[in-house]
Amino acid sequence: MKTRFAGGAFALLPFLAVQPALAEEISADDTDEIRVETALLHPSAGLMNDHMHDGGEVMVGLRLERRRYAGRNVSGTDKIDDADILAAGYTVRAQSMEMDMVMLDLMYAPNDDVTLMVMPHYMWHRMTMVGIDPMAGGMDMSGGHMSGGDMSGGHSAMLGYGESHSHGAEGFGDTLVSASYRLAKGRDLRAHVTLGVWVPTGADELKNADGTFVHYGMQPGSGTWDIEPAVTVAGSLGSVGWGGQASYRWRTDDANGAGFAFGDKFQSSAWASYRLTGRLGATARVEYVHEGAIEGHYNGPHRHSSPSDIQGNYGGDTVSLGLGANWFLPVGQAKHPQLSAEFAVPVHQKLNGIQLPQDWRVSVGLSQTF
To answer: What is the CATH number of domain 6-369?
Structure first.
């Protein structure tokens, strides 16, 4: 059982997050019936377990997220040149990567104090590699000599200097199952705690066409049972809302079936929101993420020719700033569907080893409560 970073989860609790619930009177239909509706049900399209429901309510939601990684490789906070990457023993580096996720949110509140959630998701990864060795002649850095020029198996150590190659991997990711318990409910202050369990439903042993494992970061599943407690707090004053959330994802196993385990992850968010109209709100959010390096090592054929192949080149610290909007769609007579979007960019990255930095992230969500 791994216990690293456990103290950090408590040290940063002041950054806790929540939904800013802003009440607004909206005419339900042409009979001028007045009812109260939350103006910002979800504070951000990029957050999970950020809100609760009243007893008997059911919510169905769909989220889409894309992350783009690009630019010069980074070691710590410093950008590094290809010559430095080559000197570190690599002949290939990542040039760009896109990661897409589709998540299904299913929520049910058996009573006012408890909300249950199940969230399966599907992931796509696509990475472009480029050769950086002027003397490249087909020697695989994992120790074997590559014969021929087959580029079908992920990236190839035979990439000539300046040559690029794209490859991808996809599959179902792990499934989050969680239960949230309400601590406080009111306009000025709301709070709840959440206990989540990540069920290892995703593949963690995907391989390239040549039989080698794909890069660690392109595996859609973790292969480990993970526990993720979280605390969420929120409040509002007039048209202004505020919130915060802190969570800690603890990998309970030291290794999965492929021989490795992703690092523990601590996340905290703080945000503010402003009600523009009865149906439209704007949000601004600051997010901090700390993730440990990968532990263990692939127990089957794999490459060592790029930083993405080495477990020490994963994890680090990232601070991002996100701007978003939430809109109640003018459809339906009772509870309106909500469309949410957020665009986020990193403002600080301190990465372990040598990595391709994150460029931006966009999240879009559509949800309906019944």
So the answer is: 2.40.160.40
